[in-house]
Amino acid sequence: MIEWMLHLPGIIVVIPLVMAIIVALLPSRLGWLGAVLGSGLSFWAAIVLVMHMLEATAMTRISYYLGGWPPPWGIEFAVDHATTLVIVTITALGFLSTLSGNTLIFKDIHDEDKGRFFAAWLLTLGGLLGLVMTADAFNLFVFFEISSLASVTLVAMGSGRDKRALVAAFNYLVIGAIGATFYVIGVGFCYAMTGTLNMVDMAARLPDVANPVPVYIGLAFMVSGVMVKAAVFPVHFWLPPSYGYAPMAVTSLLAAIATKASLYVLIRILMTIFGGIADIPLLIMQWVLMPLALMAILLGTILAIYEKDAKFMLAHSSVAQIGYIVLGFGVATMAGVQSGFIHIANHAMIKGGMFIGLGGLAMAVAGKTDFSSLAGLGRRMPLTSSGFLICGLSLIGVPLTAGFISKFYLVSAIISAGYWQIAAIVLLSSALSVIYLWRLVETLWFSPANESETRLPEQPMIYLPLWVLAGANIWLGIDAGLITGLAKMASITLFGGIS
Amino acid sequence: MTADNAIILGLVVPLAVAVLTPVFGSRPDIRDILGPLGGIVSFYAAMTIALAVLNGETPEWFILSISEGLNFSFKVTPLGAVFGLVASGLWIMAAIYSVGYMRGNDEANQTRFNAFYAIAVHAALAIAWSGNLLMLFIFYEVLTFSTYPLVIHKQTKDAMWAGRLYMGILVGTSLMLLLPAVIWVWIATGSLDFVPGGILAGKIDPGYVPWMLALFAFGVGKSALMPIHRWLPAAMVAPTPVSALLHAVAVVKAGVFTMLMVVVYIFGYDFLSITGGSVWLIWLASFTILASSVIAIQKDDIKARLAYSTISQLSYIVLGAALANELAAKGAALHIVMHASAKITLFFCAGAIYVSAHLNKVSQLNGLGYRMPLIFIAFFLASLSIIGIPPLGGSWSKFLLMAGAADNAMIMVIIVLAVSSLMNVWYLLEPVIRGFYLPEKSPVHVEKLPLVVIPPVLTAILCIVLFFAPWPFLSLINMMVMP
């Protein structure tokens, strides 16, 4: 292995964070270029790292410790096969959202604020990447705070259009802070019992703790804290208003990657840190995560059906889709966890594409996203709307799209584990999701337009990233081996911690 | 050309038509010739494939591996070769007819119409030649989604409502019932390949067989078994070329084709027969045959009457699959061919009457027979084929189905088939009798439109030809039931 590659786990996280500072100091008009550079470099570093992991089969874990202090004392960043899919997904979607970001901002943010805006943008990205990379339980809390505070700032910037964005951002801030606090309380319990903060070290020591009760309390606090961040039902309620009132550019970034990192942390805590403790994590997955996931799936889908604004509709649908991911984890079999990872990647592509596309369409009608404003736009902006439609078909799991692969693996995992009734609920809700997507299809293509039926100008920086995602949805829906293979390795790696 | 390449050609050509249609959107003459040309090339490919299958080959197009034992690939079974011939051959006729109909009617959005029409044919051919159950499911869904813009073509309130019903029933049933059935087979056997004799024997508890068959029977909404048949009459709001090719041939036949493939190659009719898992389906299909005939008699709208007739005839094929013996399976497979050629003729005639005389009710047809003799004679011949009277093709399939019922010693089923034939006489010959024997009420203006007259005449002749020369299809069908 080439020497400098050992630094990659750190580099991936540090690039966006450093670029954030640079961007904040540079003139505003350079803000977007800095963000593209930062997210692009980070994406490139992730690709190099993952390619290397896949080539060197013996390489199961690359560890990097800050300041030359070896773990368990120093802060460690680590990559193993459970990380690869998530890190590529987050950096790729971060990069694509950034590409369309400057155009999507539209009139939401004043030119002189763009420097600070993209600084917060990069901090969000860096914070989320840190969540995935860090191998230190307390350091994880730090990254939670970085990403939360930065993304709250981004959401609040929607106040130029609608003042309710401030309320949404405040709720997001308070609830996020509660989640982070719960998490750090849990870490405190475990630190008290084991005397270490390094995840691997903690995992090794936890089974030997004489009195397990504080450990269980710590586990409960940590899991509930992360569930808030991941917007798992019933602590998901901050998500629809935040996504709905945030500037469209921010929504496309957050919807694609923000909850994904937290979902990864959730499964990592359950299976890596607490993987050594018999039965308890599995019980939590089956008896806590699975029922909550089912509630999220049904509730999110039904609320989406009754929503009158496309942006909020997609936000409610995100709650349901997070439910699918958590449900896969909740099945707690190798196939179940694999399906969760598959959907992390696929849903990022789907929702990232849909919000970028919706933003592009909304720009033609002064940024409005309610159904009556969007009427007839599909015919007037064919490039944007067809890319949007492909991502939408993937959302409902039509064959030949990535969403179908997600559904096939999820339902297979559920039926293999013997949960027939749960499979029925999942299939019912996926059929219901056709309803809300079809309302959009009828509105965009088959409703009379508000104005004349002329073609509207389309933005290349919207439809190019959008079509990259739409193409990926089709490509990975046919040649699914790449994602399912990485997800399988992730699942095997995590189960290595248990069995 | 090898048969393997013929699969690629046959599947790519309709897609190419779909892509080129918008390119030539502003030049209608070039755009409208693409469909018939594509039909001829696809039919040539389908014939190449059928000949190869007759020679004992298995044409295959491997694209990629989805996972262990599951490929994204096409692989032609004898039954698939039959369906491929039917879909591509009738596409030629329907494409020619469609030009005459759409232009004669001055329909809007003809470019969009032609493009999605070609995609639908592509999906039907992909279903016919799919290499495993998952591929079949994938293109089953593609067919649903690609026909939606055709169903709502007129974009009226009725059409939009019909579109919702269409999507609601077809997507809903396939996602909630067919998909889990496919996954169940996959988990139970670790394979989704079509194997003569089936793959399920010994892999699942015989007690579950009726349930799994129910998931398939109701999951395949396209076969329009009662009570999930409502989408088909609703879809008649679409322009007649859609009703003719898609809702008499490609879409509905894809449904019964799926059922037949599942019974022959997944369950294996011997396994189904031993477990008795399909007895309930025999009675449900019989009920559908009679009930929809009763409804058809009451319909005055020609297309609605033909739609209920289609529902009835589709259940013949489901019945043949459910009887689970060799003769019945042959009869069901042959009925796909015979009913397709007859019913497309009937729809062509109904559309021709509408576009040249602007009439769409049975009760308006008095005396029209002498004004449009070719159309009414074609209608008459196709009706005889559906009733099952020699010398028309439909008599063979009905004969085999009755023989299959006799094989199971099911007198009641034979009676059902006989009664259904009598009701066919009633509701299909009424338009012909009105046309030739009742006096014209008020003179109507009849336009001369050769493009909508020639296709039904040709398909009516085909119905006669199929009586005297059913051998190509019969030989393929015989190969289907060979172990």
What can you tell me about this protein's structure?
The complex is a heterodimer of chains A (499) and B (483). By secondary structure, chain A is mainly α. Chain A contains 20 helices and 2 strands. Chain A has helices at residues 8-25, 31-55, 84-105, 114-133, 137-156, 164-194, 199-205, 213-230, 239-245, 248-273, 280-306, 310-331, 334-363, 371-374, 377-380, 382-395, 402-416, 420-446, 460-478, 481-496, and strands spanning 61-65, 76-80. The model of chain A has no long low-confidence stretch (mean pLDDT 88). Chain B is mainly α and 483 residues long. Chain B has one domain. Chain B contains 18 helices and 2 strands. Chain B has helices at residues 3-23, 28-54, 78-104, 110-129, 133-151, 157-189, 209-219, 231-234, 240-267, 269-275, 279-298, 302-323, 326-357, 373-387, 394-407, 411-437, 450-468, 471-481; strands spanning 60-67, 70-75. In chain B, β1 and β2 (70-75) form a beta hairpin. Chain B is globular. Chains A and B meet through α17 and α18 of A and β1, α5 and α6 of B.
Q: What keywords describe this structure?
A:
heterodimer; A: 499 residues; 20 helices; globular; B: mainly alpha
Question: How would you summarize the topology of this molecule?
Answer:
The complex is a heterodimer of chains A (499) and B (483).
Chain A: H1 8-25, H2 31-55, E1 61-65, E2 76-80, H3 84-105, H4 114-133, H5 137-156, H6 164-194, H7 199-205, H8 213-230, H9 239-245, H10 248-273, H11 280-306, H12 310-331, H13 334-363, H14 371-374, H15 377-380, H16 382-395, H17 402-416, H18 420-446, H19 460-478, H20 481-496
Antiparallel strand pairs in A: 1-2
Helix pairs in contact in A: 1-2, 1-4, 2-3, 2-4, 3-4, 3-10, 3-13, 3-19, 4-5, 4-10, 5-6, 5-10, 6-8, 6-9, 8-10, 9-10, 9-12, 10-12, 10-13, 11-12, 11-18, 12-13, 12-18, 13-16, 13-17, 13-19, 13-20, 16-18, 16-19, 17-19
Chain B: H1 3-23, H2 28-54, E1 60-67, E2 70-75, H3 78-104, H4 110-129, H5 133-151, H6 157-189, H7 209-219, H8 231-234, H9 240-267, H10 269-275, H11 279-298, H12 302-323, H13 326-357, H14 373-387, H15 394-407, H16 411-437, H17 450-468, H18 471-481
Antiparallel strand pairs in B: 1-2
Helix pairs in contact in B: 1-2, 1-4, 2-3, 3-4, 3-9, 3-13, 3-17, 3-18, 4-5, 4-9, 5-6, 5-9, 6-7, 9-10, 9-12, 9-13, 11-12, 11-16, 12-13, 12-16, 13-14, 13-15, 13-17, 13-18, 14-16, 14-17, 15-16
